[in-house]
Specification:
With 413 residues, this protein is of the alpha/beta class. The chain contains 19 helices and 8 strands.
Length: 413
C-alpha cells in the first residue's frame, strides 16, 4: 500500500478487539523524543517482558533502513521513531532487546533480532519467537502472525500495509494501527503457547531454536544463495563453482555500493555469467541487467573472479555439487523423509522446522562413521528426532501410522 493510500484509510487508530488483561487497551504511544523513550523503556524493564517488531526498508541499501520500532507490554504499546531519535537513544532500544534479564517476544523475528544485535553490538539470548513456538505445538509451519492471533485469541487482524512507505511522515492512522497490531497481541499469544509448551516440556526447545534462528539470520550463507540463484536448473559442476565465487564477490560489491546484494548483481545476471565461457570484459558487458554502477566499478573484479573460478582444480567443484542419487537411493531418502515427517507429526512438530530433505539425504548418503549424528548431540532436534531415527535405522524402533480426526497420525515406539 502506498503512503497516500494509507493516509486515506480510516480516521482513527483501531482499538483492540479483545478485552483481556494481557492485551493493552490504550492508544499506541508515539515515542519520538529521548525522554519519552526513556520513560517507556523504564516501564519495559519493570514489566520484565515485552514484544518487539520493526518496520524497515530493505530494498535500497546494503543494511535495511529502520523506519519504526514497535514495543508492547501487557499494559502499553509504544511506537519508536528512529527517524526522529538520535543513534544513542536507539541504542537503548537495541540494548533492551539484547538484555538477558528481559524476555523479548517476536514473531518470525530473525531479521528484527539481527537489527537489534547489530545496533547493540551483542547477542540477544532471551528472545522467544512465537512462530517457532507454533511449529512445536502442532500448528502449521510457517504460520503468519494474523493466523496465529486468530487461532489463539479469535481476533481477526486486517490485512497489513506490506508495501507501505514507512519512511514517510506523518504516519497515517491506518499505519499506526497496523504497526501496533504487530505487537499488541504477542504477550497474550506467548502466554497461551507457554502453557502448552510447559505441558510438553518444550519451552527450552523454543528458546534454543530462537537463538539458533537469530544466528542463522546473521550468518552469510553462500550455499543457499547459490541454490536460489540457480533457480532449480541443472548446472554443470564448473558452472556452479563460478556461481559460488560470484556470490562471494557480490557480497563485497554490495557492501561497497551500499546496495542489497541482489540489486548490486541480480541472480539472473549471475546465472548468465556462470554460463559464459572464457570471461572477457566484452562478454560480461553483454549480459543484460547488470547495473551500470556495478559494471563501472567492478567489471574487472567480476572478470578476474570468473577466470580464477574456471582455473580451480576440478575437485573444487565437488563441494558445491549435490551428491548424485541413484534411483534406489532416491527411493530410500524419500521413504526416510516421509518417516521423519510422520515422526514429527506424532510429536506435534512441523517437519520443515526439524530439517530438510537435502540435509537428510546428505547425512544418509554420507559415510556415517565420520558423521554419526544427523543433529548436534544435546540439541533439541537430537532429543526429539535424532536418537529415535538412528534407533529406527538399526531396526530397534518402529512407527505405526493411522488416520485420526481427519488427518494422519503416528505412534512412535
Amino acid at each position: 500500500m502506498h503512503h497516500a493510500e494509507a493516509h486515506a484509510t480510516g480516521g482513527t487508530v483501531r482499538r483492540p478487539q479483545l478485552q483481556d488483561p494481557l492485551v493493552p487497551q490504550g492508544e499506541p504511544e508515539m515515542l519520538s523524543t529521548p525522554s519519552a523513550l526513556d520513560e517507556f523503556l523504564d516501564h519495559v524493564r519493570a514489566a520484565g517482558s515485552f514484544a518487539y517488531d520493526t518496520e524497515f526498508i530493505g530494498e535500497e541499501t546494503f543494511l535495511p533502513r529502520i523506519c519504526l520500532v514497535q514495543l508492547s507490554t501487557t499494559e502499553r504499546v509504544g511506537l519508536v521513531d528512529p527517524l526522529e531519535l538520535p543513534d544513542d537513544a536507539m541504542r537503548c532500544v537495541w540494548k533492551a532487546v539484547c538484555d538477558p534479564t528481559l524476555q523479548t517476544i517476536v514473531h518470525a523475528g530473525g531479521q528484527d533480532v539481527l537489527i537489534a544485535q547489530r545496533g547493540a553490538g551483542e547477542s540477544a539470548s532471551a528472545v522467544i519467537d512465537t512462530q517457532i513456538a507454533a511449529g512445536m505445538t502442532g500448528m502449521p509451519w510457517p504460520l503468519s502472525l494474523a493466523n496465529l492471533v486468530e487461532s489463539l485469541s479469535g481476533v481477526h487482524l486486517p490485512k497489513g500495509h506490506t508495501f507501505t512507505e514507512w519512511d514517510k511522515r506523518p504516519l497515517s492512522k491506518a499505519q499506526i494501527g497496523y504497526a501496533a497490531d504487530d505487537v499488541r497481541f504477542l504477550p497474550l499469544v506467548w502466554s497461551k503457547q507457554r502453557e502448552r509448551l510447559e505441558a510438553l516440556g518444550r519451552t527450552a526447545w523454543v528458546a534454543e531454536e530462537t537463538r539458533e534462528s537469530a544466528r542463522q539470520s546473521e550468518a552469510f550463507d553462500p550455499q543457499s544463495q547459490v541454490r536460489r540463484a540457480s533457480r532449480g536448473l541443472t548446472l554443470r559442476p564448473r558452472e556452479l563453482t563460478v556461481l559460488r565465487e560470484l556470490v562471494l564477490i557480490r557480497q563485497e560489491m554490495a557492501q561497497a555500493l551500499n546496495l542489497p546484494p541482489r540489486t548490486a548483481l541480480p541472480d539472473g545476471c549471475m546465472l548468465e555469467l556462470a554460463r559464459v565461457g572464457t570471461p572477457t570484459a566484452e562478454r560480461i558487458a553483454q549480459v543484460r541487467g547488470i547495473p551500470r554502477a556495478t559494471l563501472q566499478h567492478f567489471a574487472r573484479n567480476i572478470e578476474e573472479t570468473m577466470a580464477r573460478a574456471r582455473a580451480l582444480p576440478a575437485d573444487q567443484d565437488a563441494q558445491w555439487t549435490p551428491r548424485p542419487e541413484s534411483a534406489e537411493q532416491r527411493t530410500q531418502v524419500d521413504a526416510l523423509w516421509s518417516i521423519l515427517s510422520m515422526r514429527s507429526i506424532a510429536l506435534g512438530i512441523a517437519a520443515p522446522l526439524v530439517t530438510s530433505r537435502a540435509e537428510l539425504a546428505g547425512w544418509f548418503l554420507s559415510d556415517r562413521t565420520e558423521r554419526p549424528h544427523l543433529f548436534a548431540p544435546g540439541s533439541w532436534r537430537e532429543e526429539a528426532i535424532g536418537s529415535w531415527l538412528e534407533s529406527f535405522l538399526r531396526g530397534e524402533r518402529h512407527l505405526n501410522l493411522r488416520w485420526h480426526n481427519g488427518g494422519p497420525a503416528a505412534d512412535a515406539t
